[in-house]
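User: Please run a holo structure prediction.
Assistant: Happy to. Please share the sequence and the ligand.
User: Here you go; the ligand is adenosine-5'-diphosphate.
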Amino acid sequence: MKMVHAVIRPELLEEVKRSLEKEGFYGLTVYDVRGRGRQDSFSWKIRGNVYKIDLLPKLKIEIVVEDEQAHRVAEIIQSAASTGEIGDGKIFITHVEEAIRIRTGERGPEAVK
Amino acid sequence: MKMVHAVIRPELLEEVKRSLEKEGFYGLTVYDVRGRGRQDSFSWKIRGNVYKIDLLPKLKIEIVVEDEQAHRVAEIIQSAASTGEIGDGKIFITHVEEAIRIRTGERGPEAVK
Amino acid sequence: MKMVHAVIRPELLEEVKRSLEKEGFYGLTVYDVRGRGRQDSFSWKIRGNVYKIDLLPKLKIEIVVEDEQAHRVAEIIQSAASTGEIGDGKIFITHVEEAIRIRTGERGPEAVK
Amino acid sequence: MVDAGDTAWVLVSAALVMLMTPGLGFFYAGLSRRKNVVAVLMQCFIAVATISVIWALWGYSLAFGPSRGGFIGGLEWFGLAGVGGEPNPDYAATIPHSTYMLFQAMFAIITPALIVGAFAERVRFGPFLLFLVLWSTLVYAPIAHWVWGVGGWLRSLGALDFAGGTVVHISSGVSALVAAMVIGRRIGYGSFAMEPSSPTLVILGAGLLWFGWFGFNGGSALASGGLASNAFMVTHLAASAAALAWMVAGWIHKGKPSSIGAASGAVAGLVAITPASGFVGPQAALVIGGLAGILCYAGVNLRALLGVDDSLDVWGVHGVGGTWGAIATGIFADASINPAGANGLLLGNPSLLGVQLIGVAATWAYAGLMTFIIVKLVDRLVGLRVKPMEEMIGLDITQHGEYVVV
Amino acid sequence: MVDAGDTAWVLVSAALVMLMTPGLGFFYAGLSRRKNVVAVLMQCFIAVATISVIWALWGYSLAFGPSRGGFIGGLEWFGLAGVGGEPNPDYAATIPHSTYMLFQAMFAIITPALIVGAFAERVRFGPFLLFLVLWSTLVYAPIAHWVWGVGGWLRSLGALDFAGGTVVHISSGVSALVAAMVIGRRIGYGSFAMEPSSPTLVILGAGLLWFGWFGFNGGSALASGGLASNAFMVTHLAASAAALAWMVAGWIHKGKPSSIGAASGAVAGLVAITPASGFVGPQAALVIGGLAGILCYAGVNLRALLGVDDSLDVWGVHGVGGTWGAIATGIFADASINPAGANGLLLGNPSLLGVQLIGVAATWAYAGLMTFIIVKLVDRLVGLRVKPMEEMIGLDITQHGEYVVV
Amino acid sequence: MVDAGDTAWVLVSAALVMLMTPGLGFFYAGLSRRKNVVAVLMQCFIAVATISVIWALWGYSLAFGPSRGGFIGGLEWFGLAGVGGEPNPDYAATIPHSTYMLFQAMFAIITPALIVGAFAERVRFGPFLLFLVLWSTLVYAPIAHWVWGVGGWLRSLGALDFAGGTVVHISSGVSALVAAMVIGRRIGYGSFAMEPSSPTLVILGAGLLWFGWFGFNGGSALASGGLASNAFMVTHLAASAAALAWMVAGWIHKGKPSSIGAASGAVAGLVAITPASGFVGPQAALVIGGLAGILCYAGVNLRALLGVDDSLDVWGVHGVGGTWGAIATGIFADASINPAGANGLLLGNPSLLGVQLIGVAATWAYAGLMTFIIVKLVDRLVGLRVKPMEEMIGLDITQHGEYVVV
Ligand SMILES: Nc1ncnc2c1ncn2[C@@H]1O[C@H](COP(=O)(O)OP(=O)(O)O)[C@@H](O)[C@H]1O
Ligand SMILES: Nc1ncnc2c1ncn2[C@@H]1O[C@H](COP(=O)(O)OP(=O)(O)O)[C@@H](O)[C@H]1O
Ligand SMILES: Nc1ncnc2c1ncn2[C@@H]1O[C@H](COP(=O)(O)OP(=O)(O)O)[C@@H](O)[C@H]1O
């Protein structure tokens, strides 16, 4: 199996979820992250100290799927999450050796069906 | 080494931690996530706009251990985090090529002892 | 490519970011985590119930870079994030099979340049 | 002669009304997306500072100074010249003139702050300040003069607005609708989920608004005693009835009783009772509040159907609620509660309702038209809307360089 | 005759007491787990709306209307008929009757809201509303009548309860204990950590409660002046002493001075001084408060030992604190502070303590029994508890479709 | 003779001022890093409890009791002996003595709480409590006596401090600077980013402070009426002008209008108008406030340049603002606003300015010196600073065993 990690703009989560659902990818895990990429950063001061915001709010999605589905999932995300502007984010694919469904103890691809 | 990723119900964290401790697994990293799986989702509207909650609060645990311990760790988590109800979560195991203890610079399995 | 995961003390983020920038590593993703390691834990009670804080606030950084850069990135982080005290954190390196820039669809090392 | 008890009550009321604007900030911040929480809070907070200064300079004089033809006050009281510790018996005979001015200042502050909800999450901060100053001067001051100023034409006509249903709520609600239409929808409106950042902040805001409203309506008696107590009582009952009504309407319609619904309902009830609070009793208050909850709930849903992105539903709550309150005053007013008032429709006096409708119509027309002109003007001059990329990142970081960690 | 100063003070006090219920919501929300924050806030918020309406309809009349045998008031004042701007000298001669009614309304609101803490995080919202209405009608109104109503049997007996130690705190605290036992523990109680979501909210709530309590106790003088000032002073001192005492007790017992402990202690002190606040001086207040901090701390630990999941410790704070306060009134009361009171044990009058104990016992028995019946009844009729899966996911999402992002 | 209206106003003012200290807690908590939010809140909250108790025991008597040579009061009123419902005409003829004592108690509470910001995020809780008790007894009580006590030497000299510019703000601001220097910088100061945890909490705190300040300054008239109204009015205007001024200064200087800047500016304006609020009119208030915004903004930047880690800028806001306010009183005072005051420089009386400067100098010297001694002493005795590892982890967990989840 593969884990598809995607860092996206938070406002596009609904869009991405909907696109994934349409092709039957339902299970996923998301969390808030902050990211730095090529985007402009903001710097300013408060009460005498210098601050810089170069970390902007993003969302990270993790989806585990069977090997052969990983590229399709990545494509779906890429097209749903792209606005063409800097800061759209990245997708990474990594290898997963084992998956277990906690409820039943099922293992392997069964666990993420 | 392996990284065991587990998405669990937040209220079972203590249980999982205790079970791991008992067998000597102490180091771990956790964070709040939201997850979607087979669970029912909730949908409703606020002030004229439709909302749906299909992402429910979960906790993610990451534990890096030596290769041969990974399955034992997964088993411990699976049995501690299972209620038998939909939404119990998943465990994934991935491969870790290198580990470093920041404090000392130690590398490899030593770093996660 | 490789993904370098680092769990660090939250207050050293600026330091780490600065050190990485100096050698041209700009892109990264961070998020708040809580971690347990060798550090002392704190236990106490509130209103009749026992609580223990053994999870202390940490920050996790994820950086995807080309294979040959991974060890350099790890070294930079290790030296910037180390105080010599227990609780400095860990660095893990994992393998990334594919990377995609969402904005353009570029793949491979190009995507994280 | 200054009465210590009356002055104590109106000073406290002024303090309570002042707190409403930060309260409104929390209410709106909780309804906004997380990335715009600071921006909304800041817009409300800075409204306090900005309007207070212009009120002292020219606003109070324009609104309450010697009338120029019933339309606007003169600048005789510029810089609060002559506004001191002695009462001005034209407005309130037992409290210092400065107390009356302060109490009115707090109304002048919250009114434009209410409009913030209409174009939340997408306007530049500098141009917003310009809008604030223009709107307060060109819309608020004249309407306040019409309704409350000695010689104001609506006051002379006999229109009743105890605590600002027309002056505060209709004017801001209608302006909100117009501003939202002119400025346009937020990026992704209708396609992304735009999740309220925090029901906790919404409840905090609603709680502070409710608390402050006792001063808003009760203080409008401009004296302590039976009339203030009546206004306080009906305010509380209308808010309660409306909170329940909106909650139940949403529960039936959408399946869950939402805390944001209950809070919005309470505000709707507070709005609707505002003009009536010195003229009706408790039974009428329950009816006015209950209907306000349902009407405003419908207003919000109607607004959504029309596709107008009045982001935090200022029109649905304040426009609809304020209009209903002005009409309800014409229906339920009871001169036995306040001899300075009049009887309404139910007590056999349909003419009051007519006068109330004139007031409503005039305010809708004037506030709507002027807001259209002001928004267009500001947009031409300095550009009101942020860049799309800034809207995506959020106003907190892009406008203020701040963000919410906790 | 209405006095402007007295009316101003009692109106402000009513506003302050109203703010206490949202304040309580924050206090409780901060003590709850993150997934139930909205639900707890909503339960408190909707208690304001619900009780206000039933208070206007029948509650006030049942509690304060013409007595039926000292046990309950009649329905003569249904819908607030006859409750207007003139004083009702039976209750307060210098403020409008509507002001008195409002002030009492705020007490009627917060009392059942206090019970929310007992069964937090596990009851369905609709049945909760039913419980609220029944409890307020069948438990609160009668007890208020006994103690404060003209002709009420405890009042006639000479029991002293200046601002509601018995009526508000014992009644809610005992009911909380019973309700928690009948409804049962939360899933995982004793095995999972149940972390308070936010000390910040706890402090916000405690701050607003403390602030509002100046109105609660000070306003119970029903006039401005020396007695109100005394009540205010002893309230403040008892809260302070109790906050320190609880904090120190926890520090010694558990190793750390916790902010939640200090906040809980302050509330315990406020509770305990409530019945005594018009009858004791500052030195007694320090003693009553200091002991309240320690007794309530012990009460909470005892409750935990007994394994009852009174989730946010309503009994430990309000039941124990209210009982101690009623007894302390019997010990420390000093007729020189309030001629309408009496001397207590320390001034050589043991009989007052006896009467106080009768009041305590009657309230424990009646509130306990009736709450048992009401909870059982509601549970039978409509099912009070959420499904286990809903409890796991949290009430915010499952009951209200809302959740806390920030 | 006790006047109901005056008493109502001063009691309400006392309640408002009490709320300022939790408000200050939110302001400071929002400016602190997330890991120290609880600790800051707790320090402010426990200051309320601690100072109240010592104020009742000895503080009030030391500050306002029969003078010993103009420097300190005697212990005749230990335990509030004799402080009851009758007015003490030396201080306020129309309100109970207990009301005056309470109002003053709230000032005594907030003053040391202000200093919390100087050494936030790095001191141990127990030693902090010791500091609190010592500072309140040895610094606050004497300075309050000098300026406000009957027979106090600065009062006798004719120094004007309507509501505590010297007693509250200069004393705390200067002490903050000294304490920050003695205790030293936070680990990583100047190299890590130290991000304010929450602009939301900052605005909440600033809103509550502003609201409470109406009582702080308005209540200092110790009666309801024209003077209270004047103080309320100028307070509001100065805060508004200063919020705008600081915001604009920061906008020009650093590119963005920050909400924390606007909030800090409002506080700076409130501080600066405090001593002047009973002696100047609205035009002067706008000038005093506007300049306060700029001067305090400069003060904060100067402090940063000097490398002193007065973490939340107590000196920059309260020290600079209070000093400016005392001087401004000497410049703008107008006896026609308050016959009990005097004319200032602009009305041809330079001597007042001289007296004001003496007051400023004496307070700087005494507060600075005594704070140096107290901090050194506490540090020697029990160790004031946490261990480096504890500072890294944060005070919430290490001092209080609590932390902020939401
Ligand atoms: N090398 C990297 N490793 C991990 N995350 C990255 C990396 N580069 C970018 N990111 C994540 O992707 C987000 C978008 O990156 P950015 O470079 O702004 O977009 P784009 O790919 O459109 O140029 C960043 O905010 C960050 O979270
Ligand atoms: N394919 C997946 N990839 C990543 N996370 C998943 C995936 N499927 C489920 N999850 C995570 O596991 C959680 C529980 O999944 P669910 O399907 O409800 O449980 P169960 O395995 O008991 O049927 C989800 O909330 C989500 O966080
Ligand atoms: N086996 C592990 N797997 C995942 N994360 C770990 C592991 N061990 C430690 N960590 C993370 O590293 C952090 C620091 O670990 P700790 O053991 O305290 O430091 P040190 O390496 O200096 O002894 C922990 O808080 C936790 O987040």
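The CA atoms of residues 344 and 350 of chain E lie 6 Å apart.
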